[in-house]
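Researcher: Next sequence.
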Amino acid sequence: MSFNFIQKDMQLHELKPIYKKKAKKRVGRGGKRGSYSGRGMKGQGARAGRKFQPIIREIIKRYPKRRGYRFNSWREKPITINLNVLEKSFEAKAKVSPAILAEKGIIRKQSNKLPAVKILGRGELTKAFVIENCEISKRAKEKIEKAGGEIKLT
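Model: Next structure:
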């Protein structure tokens, strides 16, 4: 005895998911979580469709708004080095940059990055230096140029 199965095309209404639907948790209707079900007692927080302002806004509003106060005013301050340190540590016509200063152990890397360096004008300078990638005070700039040094900003 043979059966002849007629294969018909599947229709949209015959499609079924391969997994069961997860029932949505209905909170605040008694049951295992207690009568209030984690919503507390009366009030806005206990109601359906509650909407609160973001709490961060309230924190920001409490900050003092003083003259000159800005949220983005924080910036890493450069490490300061005086000319007398350069005079002792380097020979004439030497190149001075944050990388070379870190190699010589005059400055340290901060979280594996070279920090910004500012050269200040304390001390006398008799040697000419080539200074690269450093901030320089006005007084230090005058002394470096007077000694025959060069400043390269890149």
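Model: The CA atoms of residues 109 and 115 lie 6 Å apart. The chain is about 20% helix and 10% strand.
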